[in-house]
Design a protein that fits this description.
By secondary structure, this protein is an alpha/beta fold. It has one domain: Nucleotidyltransferase, domain 5, CATH 3.30.420. Helices cover about 45% and strands about 25% of the residues. Strands 1-6-5-2-3-4 form a six-stranded mixed beta sheet, sandwiched between helices. β5, α3 and β6 form a beta-alpha-beta unit. The chain is globular, with a radius of gyration of 15 Å. The two termini are about 30 Å apart.
């Protein structure tokens, strides 16, 4: 079994734990679904992939591990749902626990503020003139891409 990797909220610490670039996976954890996005190895742009049904953690972990292996991912970015004043609530604690459990995959995990991710994703999908039904199908993956893009933008400026 792989030793758990570090879980942090610091872009600089996360970058220091990475082997020098590589693809990242971004996750938007919902109560019923998990939005999934990936970025390129050079950390320039994030793209939504799909929305996975959320179930028991062991099933979630197996599905995510398969995606991680398929894309040669070197790090995980998980949206951290903070209250508007920046404080942590119950959903925040749930995301932290999920991240700690996912760290057993052996990849560094960055918890990234997701306060405006869904609103930003919704705005982007509306700008694409996407129907309400299509937006409902794609919003979680689009939110994961917004979360991941914010993180890789910060990584580009993180000093080791």
């Amino acid at each position: 079994m792989t030793a758990p990797a570090p879980v942090t909220t610091s872009a600089a610490e996360f970058r220091a734990a990475l082997p020098g670039g590589g693809a990242l996976i971004g996750l938007d954890l919902g109560t019923r679904t998990i939005g999934v996005a990936f970025c390129d190895a050079g950390w320039r742009f994030a793209s939504p992939l799909r929305t996975l049904p959320r179930g028991k953690f062991t099933a979630d972990k197996a599905g995510l591990a398969a995606l991680i292996a398929e894309r040669s991912v070197c790090g995980i970015v998980i949206g951290l749902p903070l209250n508007m004043d920046g404080s942590a609530g119950p959903r925040s604690q749930s995301s932290r626990a999920y991240a700690a459990n996912l760290a057993a995959l052996g990849l560094p995990v960055l918890l990234w503020d997701e306060r405006w991710s869904t609103a930003g994703a919704e705005r982007d999908l509306i700008a694409q003139d996407m129907s309400r039904a299509k937006r409902a199908e794609r919003i979680d993956a689009a939110a994961a891409a917004v979360i991941l893009q914010g993180a890789i933008d910060a990584l580009a400026g993180a000093v080791l």
